Amino acid sequence: DSTLNVITSLSTNDPMYEGLVKFKNQVETASQGRLSVRIFVGSQLGNDSDMLEQAMLGANVAVLADGGRLAVYQNELGILGAPYLVEDYGQLNVLVDSPLFSEWADSLATRHGLHIFSFNWWQGARHLLTQKPVSAPADLQGIRMRTIGAPVWIQTIDAMGATPTPLAWAEVYSGLQQQVIDAAEAQYTGMWGARLYEVITHVTKTGHIQLISGLVGSERWYQSLSLSQQKIVTRAAIEAGRFASKQVRAEEVKIEEALKARGVVIAEPDTTPFRQSAKVVYKNLGYAALFRDIQTLLQEADDANDSSH
Amino acid sequence: MMMMLLFLLLLAIGLPLAFCLLIAGLSYFISAESLPIAVAVQRLVASSQSFPLLAVPFFILAGHIMNHSGITQRLISFSNLLVAWIAGGLAHVTIILSALMGGVSGSAIADAAMQARILGTPMQTSGLGKGFSAAIVTISALITACIPPSIGLILYGFVGNVSIGKLFIAGIVPGILLTMTLMLTVFFQVKKHYPEQAEGEKRPHLRQIMRSMNDCKWALLFPVILIVTIRFGIFTPSEAGAFAVVYAGIIGFWCYRELTFDSLITSLKDSIDDIGMIMLIILSAGVVGYVVAYQQLPVSLAQAVSDLTSQPILVLLLCLIFLLFVGMLMEGTVIVLLLTPILVPVVQTVGIDPIHFGVLMMIIVTFGGTTPPVGIAMYSVCNIMQCPTDEYVSAAWPFYLAVMGLITLMALFPSIVLFLPELIY
Amino acid sequence: MQMIHRIERWLCVLLLVAIVFLVFIAAIMRTLGYPLIWSVDVAQLLFAWLAMLAANQTFHHGQHASVDIFTRRLHPAYRELLFSGLDVLMIVVLGVLVWFGVELFMANPQRTLGSTSIAYRWVTLCVPVGAVLMILTLATRLTRRHHRENPEAGL
Ligand code: NA
Ligand code: NA
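Above: the input entities. Below: the structure tokens describing the complete assembly.
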């Protein structure tokens, strides 16, 4: 089948969706209509883990998934969701273009039948959404903060001082409203889409995790394509990821203005104490050596960049 | 299309609904080359992995325990005192009870199943027909879908990116209107079909009401505590279901002293059969839901609607008619999850308030659950009360008309739904 | 057979009690500020098993919802025949679920359940196991009906 079904848990209002539309258009025009892409929003065909499983089974599907979800298959990919790993989009690109990363991707494809089309879909930095001002980890003591129910996230929130409380994203709004939880953490576009600004008063820009996703699909489907078609899909996926990330950046500026207009207090604290306390996550999850490797890699790229200027 | 015909054929020859859904769904997986059949099994399992769905077994169990703990009897006698003097007696009691307990339950199916257990037999012994009793119990569950908290509205708000707080408040007035409409319909139906019921008892004195309220304070406190815990703290709707079970147990054991260990075990065992029946249907609906989504059936249908007209009121009515049709074929929460992201943009582009649409969608989708061919609420109730489907339908159609009338009214005059949320926000 | 059935019934009761307990305790602990991270995931694992096992119980004690408009009007002998045919059809469908359920169980051992380190395949397993139990129930019912039919035919 020459159709690829791309699934995301996000809605059509999310900038990632615009990226997927670009991916669809580019694949369809470049392949002169021989390949087609269908986009499904709102997890219509299953949640992200379900979709990865379907791709493994050989269904012609792909999904926007974060590193944490892929970590059960390829442990190293889990580090992409760890706190304060990369500083910006440039560093992210250096990382996913590195031989280190393609080693992981190859292993994922051969061992588990999952193909990474591109891993440069940046959804924004995660910030703290609270009912009171926060300036240091100590302020988070005893605060029940909703986070994603995966080890990296739970460890990160715990290390930053709050009490991690996993809750379905759908229940975060009512949970905050009814004080089932005291706080949440999310990227700007996510909190905007879920209207969390209606139920919180403070945004603290810790940027503790860069939310990075990849377009991951069935290796069996990818291998059924001709070489030139494979190139078309890969190139489109990379360009679409870049485009979507740019959209996010533009969107975030607008959202921040709108939040201020609604009276939400936005604070930019010194992130050093949060960084310090989050370091323990790497040790706890066994990523300490890998973290050093990646920092060296990023440092080298930085130096090369500086010397070329 | 083939799938639909296969489904209807199997249903007609008496194959259990869950298996009709399963076979229809599996037939597509077998014919589609790019879809491994193991994915169908995944969808079956995945349907059970939804936290809001846990409310279903909880409220079924809570209903059974309440039967044995004296809570239900006291609530019934209170509702009895309040409205039994009106022609139709227990039918009105059922509706009032639905409104009382609707503020607690988020699931229309659970509500209907619970009330079928509690009120099914008493209604019939009071002289109301089996089909009539089943119809009242099922259709009054619509009130549950409106009055907050409603799991359906939470899902709609999430998927459609609509304010959940506003949706909750918008549900209150329609819930009350539904209660009144159903009571009026019962009044006229009873006059017509059960004239001996129309006599009624004397109206209660205030003193009587106060005494009865005191007698059943734990029972009356029950919905109030649940609403408060959900609205202002502590519990999500699913957790409130677990709380309902625990509360009903505590009240039965220590306050009313009517619940015994043996009757607790009996309630658990009775719940298992209800849960097995309802859950197998919901799980199988997950397989069909995947196929429906995979074929992008909703997308093409919604597109057809917007191609037809851009007149807001016509688009709204078309959407509602479409939802009514889909609601008759599929499970309510599945529809909300599948169609909200498609229909909300359609109605928004022609200028319809998504809050307004959401409440109407919730009512009409739940309404679909009370009608053949795939009304899950209807099947649950008819199964529990052992009422033949055709007997149910012949008693239910006046209520269908009344509810449709109310929905049309609310569609034509959006302010009926919207004035309260606009007042508060 | 009777033995399996009774064990299953008690297992269902235990599962239901455990689910209520887990969700209730989770809510209480979170309110107190000590959220139990795994409780809801485990509750959902048990819920999947409860659903499949209870579905088999419904065959024993109640009835799975079906439309009876047509079958009610059928001659009893034909109705029995039709029901036997439907039982066979259900056994075939359940057989498909067993086969592909086992395939799914084998295919993805790495996937974990929510925030826990429990393999998700233990959720998946409820389908083949539940389907096998339902096949046993239906097969027993089918042979019983068959044995009963013979003397009736003699009359
Ligand atoms: Na009711
Ligand atoms: Na409700």
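Note for the figure: The pocket of sodium ion (ligand 1) is lined by residues B 94, 98, 111-112, 115, 137, 140-141 (CB under 6 Å).
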